[in-house]
Design goal:
Immunoglobulin-like; alpha/beta; Rossmann fold; about 700 residues
């Protein structure tokens, strides 16, 4: 396997490996050694080329402080290698051994209520602790020395799903490190007071030593700047913790690739040092882990959204953990993939940017907090349908990998994403409004259902490859993005800017320039003179919203309000729409075209949706939040030819994605339903999975898949 230096982070980046990583996380320490050879033989027979080892086994590698014993893993690596299977090793720092937490209790995480974590789970150590960082460096150095010359260890995963169990800590060590971070960032306490708005509510400090970690509702709301900087600090500290390990591993063997497996995107700035340190990123994909009732389109649409959000940070990625079956921990359980569905979900991951995939896990555990989390083989050591599907998927990859590697995912419609500051700025001051991701997912969901090439992109990336850019109320619009976005519009692109964009600066202050700020105001030809809250369509009052995983939100406590009768409506084309969450009143430049007007109450006759020609393209502004009907209206009256589906007349249950390079195009067609379906109006090509020519139509069985090499 050949590794080349990684390209800069971008949604268009491909992996820097010349082989598709395919395999399983494997835990030889969970079974008797008599199983190992048979496991290795069956892993190889399935068509896998790698396993992932060691992420939770620090206690075996260092049973006593300073006493290292890698013999178990030495033997396991050799057994796997005897069958041609290489190893990705992990730094085991998600689960420190008991001797460490007993001897150095100051390394334990402290929660918001002041409770010190106890030993007995994972991620209970505080990665901000200098003592814990020292011990994590020690075990990483020992591992690097042990395997630097072992040709069967080809790469590394740092830790395991950093910040997934917990990202915050309120320990004394965290507070000290937070103050040090703030001192480095602001240099003087006066600069910090200015940034945090110290003259509001007497929030000014006399020295950095007075600053504490912010706690929500203790008793009231925290200054937005204080909260934003705390989460910036957590991301900085997470990157520093990983950087220690990366430096050690790179120094031991520069040929190793290094990645991390993200679970939740919590307090990790993937476009910052964290992502820049790595060869590529890994994202763990469990489509059935999420509440399907809250996600229109069910788990296929949710998986697509998750993958597209992740790809915006890094470009192509690997999936170090891909769901293979029923999963559970004591507090939850998932749905179970039906026959054929495991393979379909894996091919969906590949279609949307995965250049490597490991099914979680090889065999299920017989003890611990995941005893019902199924693997490729069953508890009785018998390989059944999941093994056969994994083997079929390996055969699929073998047929397509030559054409697949080096391709990127087509996007015609792109939603602004992958910006840590905007994600956190929303959380500091949500006002009961949807998050940018919640707003953008309405457009993504529409495109997914229609087979339109859609994804997420950062404004600093190459925009020339997309046709539409939607900005979902990014409150912190940074001036350095203006030039790239204006060039995109002048060269023929369509920009749509959502309400509330550009309403704050990087300190969460409101600028004196009217939103959306000098650059976007000039580009769109609009300035927001007034804004106000409206009830959600169909609601009888305003709702407060509380944050949950991945930036999605649930309605919570109903707030007393008489605003249910104050509905704001606007026309777009020949249809009247009900505004969602917010209205804005716009002042327009002379060359701005009004596409939609407010149609009732005091706003009647004022512009709600606008368009301004700029060069070969146009910049549009929408003075409210998206709804499903509004998305359809924008498609009909603004986007038009820019949002044609990849395949006309696509059946509802079929997912379609295009991966492409300059010399080839691969059209993925994935039946997400248990019923067979016929796809028509297809371009001529070859189905690489079956080897059969396709011209016009194709039958897909239950959860059936095809990958067409086509000319479009």
């Amino acid at each position: 396997m050949k590794r080349t230096p990684p390209a800069p982070l971008s949604v268009w980046r491909t992996l820097n490996l010349d082989e598709f990583l395919l395999g399983v996380p494997h835990y030889p320490e969970h079974v008797d050694e008599s199983y190992w050879q048979r496991d290795a033989q069956r892993i190889a027979a399935a068509g896998f080329n790698v396993v992932r080892l060691g992420e939770f086994a620090w206690h075996l590698m260092e049973p006593r402080e300073g006493v290292f014993d890698f013999s178990l893993f030495d033997r396991a690596i050799d057994v796997l290698a005897s069958e041609g299977v290489k190893t990705i090793f992990c730094t085991p720092t998600a689960t420190p051994p008991r001797w460490l937490t007993a001897s150095y209790p100051e390394v334990l995480r402290v929660d918001e209520r002041g409770r010190t974590a106890t030993h007995g789970s994972r991620q209970h150590a505080d990665t901000n602790s200098p003592v814990y960082r020292m011990h994590s460096r020690r075990i990483t150095e020992a591992l690097a020395r042990q395997y630097a010359g072992n040709p069967n260890v080809i790469g590394w995963q740092t830790d395991n799903e950093l910040n997934t169990t917990a990202s915050t800590s309120y320990s004394e060590a965290s507070e000290r490190e937070f103050r040090r971070y703030l001192h480095d960032r602001y240099e003087t306490i006066d600069k910090l007071n200015l940034a945090w708005g110290g003259n509001f509510w007497a929030l000014a400090y006399d020295s950095f030593d007075q600053i504490t970690i912010p706690r929500k509702d203790n008793p009231g709301f925290v200054a937005p700047g204080h909260m934003q900087d705390y989460h910036r600090f957590l991301a900085h500290a997470t990157a520093a913790f990983q950087h220690d390990q990366v430096e050690i591993l790179r120094g031991a063997n520069p040929e190793w690739f290094i990645f991390h497996n993200l679970g939740r995107l919590e307090d990790v700035d993937l476009r910052g040092q964290f992502g820049q340190d790595l060869d590529f990123l890994g994202f763990d994909i469990y489509p059935m882990l999420y509440d399907e009732m809250r996600r229109a389109g069910g788990h296929p649409a949710t998986q697509a959204l998750h993958l597209d959000v992740c790809r915006a940070y890094s470009g192509n990625f690997i999936v170090p953990e891909q769901a293979s079956g029923f999963g559970s921990q004591p507090g939850f359980s998932t749905m179970t993939p039906e026959p054929g569905e495991m393979r379909r979900m894996a091919l969906s991951s590949v279609a949307r940017g995965a250049d490597g995939l490991l099914f979680f896990r090889w065999r299920p555990a017989h003890f611990g907090a995941e005893i019902y989390w199924m693997g490729i083989i069953d508890h009785d050591d018998v390989p059944r349908r999941r093994y056969q599907e994994a083997k079929q998927f390996a055969e699929d990859i073998d047929r397509i990998k030559k054409d697949l590697l080096g391709t990127t995912v087509r996007m015609n419609v792109a939603i602004a994403g992958a910006d840590f500051d905007n994600q956190e700025a929303y959380r500091t001051y949500p006002m009961g409004m949807p998050s940018p991701l919640e707003d953008g997912m309405l457009l993504h969901r529409y495109c997914y259902s229609k087979g339109i090439a859609c994804g997420f992109i950062h404004p600093e990336d190459d925009l020339s490859r997309i046709k539409v850019l939607y900005v979902p109320h990014w409150v912190m619009w940074k001036p350095e993005w203006n030039e790239n976005v204006e060039a995109f519009v002048r060269n023929g692109g369509t920009l749509i800017v959502g309400a509330m964009t550009g309403t704050r600066d990087e300190n969460n202050h409101i600028p004196t320039d009217l939103a959306p700020g000098p650059g976007l105001s000039k580009l769109c030809g609009v300035r927001v003179e007034e804004f106000g809250r409206v009830a959600e369509p169909g609601a009888d009052g305003l709702f407060g919203l509380h944050g949950t995983e991945f930036g999605f939100h649930n309605p919570a406590k109903r707030l007393p309000s008489s605003s249910a009768s104050r509905r704001h409506r606007f026309t777009l084309g020949n249809r009247e729409h009900e505004a969602a969450h917010l209205y804005e009143l716009l002042a327009l430049d002379d060359d701005v075209e009004v596409l939609g007007q407010w149609s009732n109450r005091f706003a009647s006759g004022r512009a709600a949706v606008t368009s301004r020609k700029v060069g070969k393209g146009r910049a549009c502004y929408v003075g409210t939040y998206l709804t499903e009907p509004l998305v359809e209206g924008l498609v009909d009256h603004v986007l038009g030819a820019d949002v044609q589906p990849l395949v006309p007349d696509l059946p509802p249950a079929v997912e379609v994605v295009l991966r492409e390079a300059e010399d080839r195009k691969l059209l993925f067609l994935l039946n997400c339903d248990a019923e067979p379906v016929e796809v028509t109006s297809l371009p001529a090509g070859i189905d690489l999975l079956s080897g059969k020519p396709v011209n016009g139509g194709l039958a897909l069985g239950p959860y059936g898949c095809a990958v067409l090499r086509v000319h479009l």
